Amino acid sequence: MKKTLTIAAMLLLTASSSFAIYDPNNPNPDLKEGVMTTMLAPITYATYDSKEDFESTEGQICETASDGVNTFMMKDGKVFAGTKIWYPNDFEPEWQCESYVSDNIIGWSQSDKNEFNTLLERTSDSDKAIIAGWVQKVENILMEYPESKREMLEAQILESIDTAIFELIVKYPQDIALPDSASRIYNILRLFRYAIVTR
After folding, report:
1. Could you tell me the residue ranges of all domains in the chain?
2. I need a surface site. Which of 67, 102, 137, 139 has the fewest CB within 10 A?
3. Neighbours of 139 (CB within 10 A)
4. pLDDT tens sequence across 151-168
5. How far is it, in rounded angstroms, from Cα 126 to Cα 64?
């Protein structure tokens, strides 16, 4: 329990130490730095008409894909190699992920998948390294406990992350984008949460 609180304190300190003051002279900062909100949507196993649409939406989280006939491996978010057995006459591909990099991703809504890919694009390599370090610390802490307690501890860690995100968001009016530094912390915390869920 003490280690869970240590992680929560680490997250809150990181979040609170990087705030910037809202600039009233710039009420509409660049939207790409703004908050991306997601609404929970029904689970969908989406199909895509083009390989490019599929890669941009699910490429980073998919391990194997299908075009409706053949199966393909994924590498660095792109269709890489696969079985090219045959195509029927008048074939129109319907791209779909057949297996995800983590079983936990299967239950993600389309909004979750889109947010995850957006966070990957917006998060710098140095921030991704910070997240990887945090995930490793969480993994080390969880391994010290019996498996029966790990799920409960992970839920507490996720709740701590959610609380830090909530506290960050409520500090700013909802009709404006977050300042750059707050947006950075938001992106780090959201990607950290996804990393914990998919580890």
Report:
1. 2-22+111-198, 51-107
2. 139
3. 11
4. 899 999 999 999 999 998
5. 28
Decide if pLDDT at 12 tops 70.
no
Q: Is the pLDDT of residue 173 over 90?
A: no
Residues ≥6 apart with Cβ < 8 Å to 173: none
Round to whole Å and give the CA distance between 86 and 65. Answer: 16
Query: What are the backbone dihedrals phi and psi of residue 56, each rounded to the nearest 5 degrees, phi first?
Result: -70, -25
pLDDT tens string 22-54: 333 433 333 333 332 232 222 346 789 999 989
Residue 140 has pLDDT above 90, yes or no: yes
End-to-end CA distance of the chain: give it in Å, rounded: 20
Strands 62-66, 78-82: pairing is unpaired
Task: Identify the pLDDT of residue 120.
Answer: 84
